[in-house]
UniProtKB/TrEMBL annotation:
Belongs to the TRAP transporter large permease family. The complex comprises the extracytoplasmic solute receptor protein and the two transmembrane proteins. This is TRAP transporter large permease protein. InterPro entries: DctM, TRAP_DctM. It is a multi-pass membrane protein. Keywords: Cell inner membrane, Cell membrane, Membrane, Transmembrane, Transmembrane helix, Transport. NCBIfam families: dctM. Part of the tripartite ATP-independent periplasmic (TRAP) transport system. The lineage of its organism: Bacteria, Pseudomonadati, Pseudomonadota, Betaproteobacteria, Burkholderiales. The keyword Cell membrane applies. It is found in: Cell inner membrane.
Length: 432
């Protein structure tokens, strides 16, 4: 009964329009209070204790720092210089600009790890360029929204940091290493339908007439952006700093590039940058803290065990249960953001993963891919919202293009399920 009240109140509050974090916190507080009716106020002491415990974790310090990194690089002009370099390498022609957009999004994923920030940075440069070259705005928005989703797989990744905090058996370095190859596969898979669709519908006809940037000048301009992932990931691998410290190093590197090298960020711009990053970080951390209360209520009120037992004894088998979990995440990914999905469902799914002895690092990457797919699956797709706003198109106009990109992502997911070594080989080789 308490479990029904918990989920019932949570769903009702969301339908009433309350933020997800607030809905989780209020529903969990009510459930905890009702479970301790005789000692109501004493039982509620668990609420502030778990609120603090959810935030009092060292790896979580990296989250606001990487949010700030994404904001800094979004405004520093790195994206436009990476675009010029990619065009200088690949040349001009129909279907090239979508490939360039995806490649640049993958590179920025190695800097910020934030999908919406990459969608804004790459979309601000590429959508206008693709429109001038003759691409449909709805197609451009679809490509940018899908390519920005890669960022939560390629390290450093905010989503992987959140997962590692929720799952003690999956460290941040292990998750970062595990996400690298799947992120590259994801990006390559998106390039194929993007290129073929552009050629099929004769988009980009004006592209060949546009000038090709000179290679060496483009490389010189883009080298600072290319060096950022090497600095962040190479420094962590060399043991120079932890993932949390790497986030701080990335902030100062981004400010140095934006203010000293490119000079696109002025001192007067710093307040707006810190404000935007602070607001987004506060929202994420508030959801994390309130979700901690929700997870506590699930574990202490005896709700998880009956759900786990019902699923594992359903007769579906290991792969049937995995398919059911993935279908569930696809559905919730259409209406919830990635961090909220992790915070709500990881406590429920960990006992199932333990029952089937799934590798926690592999399972985390699989969950992250599902979250990435949700970020560009209508109707609520945070990356697609950003790119559609830049392209000034309605989200429903992107469905004809997004469906092919979703199919490519689904094939990558199937490949990782069938061949889990693609995920676990690198972290195992590096000793994580």
């Amino acid at each position: 009964m308490i479990g029904l009240i918990l989920f019932g109140v949570f769903i009702v509050l969301m339908l009433l329009g309350l933020p997800i974090g607030v809905a989780m916190g209020l529903a969990a507080t009510l459930a905890i209070g009702l479970a301790n009716v005789d000692t109501f106020w004493f039982g509620l002491l668990a609420v502030p204790q778990n609120f603090y415990a959810s935030l009092g974790k060292y790896p979580l310090l990296a989250l606001p720092m990487f949010v700030l990194v994404g904001t800094i690089f979004e405004r520093s002009g790195v994206a436009s210089r990476l675009v010029d370099l990619a065009i200088a390498i690949l040349g001009r022609g129909p279907g090239v600009l979508p490939v360039v957009a995806i490649a640049v999004a993958m590179l920025l994923g190695g800097i910020s790890g934030s999908g919406p920030a990459t969608a804004a940075a790459v979309g601000g440069v590429m959508i206008a360029a693709m429109t001038r070259a003759g691409y449909f705005p709805s197609f451009s928005a679809s490509v940018i929204g899908a390519s920005a989703a890669i960022d939560i797989l390629i390290p450093p990744s905010i989503a992987l940091i959140v997962y590692s905090i929720l799952v003690p058996g999956a460290s941040v370095p292990a998750m970062f290493a595990a996400g690298l190859f799947p992120g590259l596969l994801f990006g390559i898979a998106l390039m194929v339908p993007a290129y073929l669709l552009a050629r099929q519908y004769n988009m980009g006809a004006n592209e060949a007439s546009l000038p090709r940037p000179p290679f060496w000048r483009s490389l010189k301009e883009a080298i600072w952006g290319l060096a950022a992932p090497v600095l962040i990931l190479g420094g962590m691998r060399a043991g120079l700093f932890t993932p949390t410290e790497a986030a701080v190093v990335a902030v100062f590197y981004g400010l140095f590039v934006g203010m000293v090298i490119y000079r696109t960020i002025k001192i007067k711009d710093l307040f707006a940058i810190f404000r935007d990053a602070g607001e987004l970080s506060a929202i994420i951390l508030m959801v994390v803290a309130l979700a901690g209360i929700f997870a506590y209520s699930l574990s202490t009120l005896g709700i998880i065990d009956p759900i786990t037992e019902a699923i594992t004894s359903s007769g579906l088998g290991e792969y049937g249960v995995l398919a059911l979990v993935l279908l569930l995440l696809v559905l919730v990914g259409m209406v919830l953001d990635g961090v909220s999905i992790f915070l709500i469902f990881v406590p429920l799914l960990m006992p199932i993963a333990a029952f089937y002895q799934w590798d926690l690092v592999w399972f985390g990457v699989i969950l992250t891919i599902m979250v990435a797919i949700g970020q560009f699956t209508p109707p609520i797709a945070v990356n697609l919202m950003v790119s559609c706003k830049i392209a000034q198109v309605q989200m429903e106009t992107t469905i004809r293009w997004v469906m092919w990109l979703l199919l490519a992502a689904a094939l990558v997911l199937l490949l990782l399920v069938v061949f889990p070594e693609i995920v676990v080989w690198l972290p195992r080789t590096l000793g994580y």
